[in-house]
Structure formats: C-alpha cells, structure tokens
Amino acid sequence: LIIATIIIISFKFFTDDLQQENQEELFLTRDGVSSYQEFKEIVHERKISALYIKTPEGNGQEVYQFIDSLKEKYGLGKNIEILTYHDLYSKSLKGKKGYHQEIEFAKKYPKVLFNFMKEDSISFFVSFAPHISSLYTSSILHELQMDIVKEGFNFKSAGLPYTNYHLNKYSSDIKKYLFPGVFVLAFIFILILVRNLLAAYIIFCPPLFSALFSLALIKTFYIHMNMVTSIVPLVSFVISLAVVLHLYFPALLYGSARQAKSLKLMPTILMVVTTGIGFGSLVISPIKVIGQFAVLSCISIVFCSCASYLWMSRFLDYLILKAPAKKINLEI
C-alpha cells in the first residue's frame, strides 16, 4: 500500500506540468495535416488575431494611447507584431499619426478593407510568426487580455490564435477542475459504501492510479494533451472503478474472496478484451488525434484493468473483515 502511494504521488508530480495544446489541424486527416504543413512552409502564413476595444464615450484618445503602449510592450520583435490602423494605411495618411487625424481619415474613407478606427471602437491585429507554438500564442493573448481588463476596457477578439487559446483553456480546465472533482466525489461515494477510511483508500487506489497512469502515457508519448486525449484518464478511471467494485461487492455477498475472484475472473477478462479491441479499432481512423486516442485508451484500459483486478485480489480478505457491520443490500 505504501509503495502504491509512492507510485501515485510520483505520477502526480510527473504529470503536473502536462499542458494542453489544441492546434488548428487537430481534426484534419493525416493527409490533410501533411498538405496543411506543406502549405505553411510555402506561404509562411502568419497567425493573426483581431482585437476590438470599445472606446468610452468621448475618450477614444485614451484607448489609442493604450494600444500604442501594448505595441511597445509586445510588438517590437519579428515573432510578434501589433498592427494598428496607422500601420496599415501609413502611406495614405502621409505620415500623420494621432487619434484625431486617423479618425478623420477613417470617416472620410469608411469603405476601406480594415476600418479599425470608429467613434465607438478601435481595433488592431496581433500577428504571430508561423513557427510560434499555439501554447506561446495562447500565453501572449492571455497577457494581452489581462492588460485590457486591468484598464477596465470592454473588448472582443477573433482569429485562429484566439480560437486555439480558448480550446487550450477549456481543455486545461478539464484537468484543473473536472479531474479533481470526479476523484473527490468518487472517493466520498466509496467511503459512504464501505464506512472505513483505509478500506475506502484501498478501493480508490486503482482508479486513481489508472487516471494518473493515462496522463503519464500522454506526456511520455505525445508531450502535450489535447481536447480528445484528455478524455482517456476519465475513461480509464471509470473502468478501473467498475472493476474494483465488481470484485468488492460479490466478496461481501459470499463472504469469500476466492469465490468472488472465481466468479468475476472470466467476465473481467471478456470486458478487458472487448473494450480494448473496441477502443483500439479506432487506430485505423484517418484522423491522427483519433488514432492517438485509440492507442492511449487501449493501453490504459488493458493494463489498468488487469492491475486493478490483481490489486483487489490482494486486499479482498482484508476488505471483507473491514466491511460495515450493517450489511449493504446487494439484491437487485
């Protein structure tokens, strides 16, 4: 039990810095990804987001100066550029720079392609070099948003980097909030059933190990997690929990660990084989991320289900002794 706890803690520390990365080609087929990569190498397409800041009534000058400060802070290198209205139409403006000059020019030519200067708003582009990762672009966009919010301005944003930023954020929330929430609720549920803290922990160890083992697999093979592979730890957790409970309750019912193991061995084997084949068959999918999901799911389910069965076999006799004095009603 101590060794298992050490392994679980080690997995926790190993996977603690596992990050989410959801790139735009996530759901492309393998051929589609290759074509897209070739296109990017030829075109050197920059990743662009557009930000729109609502100007307080009669105070567009303040927003204009604030955007200039953002440009000085973030847009001084080749990797990141902040493109304002002046940058796009500097030749037409004939070198004139300033909020009032640019707003008058915008009023005079309202049908230009990027009409970023308006009475009620000012917009600008944030452009990233093609080689910059979506994780880095997400961190920059997050900092930009924090700066805008800190100044009390209302804003909206659009563009591929901004979409990737939100995909990363939502997926990260799964690991940060959903995983711990599921673990806590599952442990409370087990504790209510067995009414013994140590027994509850023994039953809870295999599912917790399975989830962390899946996270470790993701980090080892793919470095980052995405919105599809983030499902694998939950699947592994739930299946392992089902295995341990399907051994625990028959052991209580018959009062015999040997009889419970004999009764549940073949159903467990069939479940592991069929579920492993079912998830593993997705490896033939032309979509790369689905293939990753298939490999991770198959390995996690087969290994963790077997480990859960062996773990419970070792502790069933102890769990029977620690069973609640008032027997749980197991009749269906």
What do these coordinates show?
With 332 residues, the protein is α+β, with helices and mostly antiparallel strands. The chain has twelve helices and four strands, in the order ααβαβαααβαβααααα. The protein has a four-stranded antiparallel β-sheet. Helix 8 runs antiparallel to helix 9, helix 9 packs antiparallel against helix 10 and helix 9 runs antiparallel to helix 12. The longest helix has 35 residues. The protein starts with a helix and ends in an 11-residue tail after the last helix.
Largest sheet strand order: 2-3-1-4
State mean pLDDT (0 to 100 scale).
Answer: 83
What portion of residues belong to β-strands? 5-15%
Strand/helix succession: HHEHEHHHEHEHHHHH
User: Structural class, from secondary structure content?
Assistant: alpha+beta
Compute the number of strand runs.
4
Number of helices: 12
Terminal Cα span: 33 Å
| Main sheet: strands, sense, barrel | 4 strands, antiparallel
Proportion of residues in helical segments: 55-70%
Shape descriptor: elongated
Topology of this structure?
Blueprint: H1 2-15, H2 30-43, E1 47-54, H3 60-74, E2 80-83, H4 85-88, H5 90-93, H6 99-108, E3 121-128, H7 134-150, E4 155-159, H8 160-194, H9 197-222, H10 232-254, H11 257-280, H12 288-321
Antiparallel strand pairs: 1-3, 1-4, 2-3
Helix pairs in contact: 1-9, 7-8, 8-9, 9-10, 9-12, 10-11, 10-12, 11-12
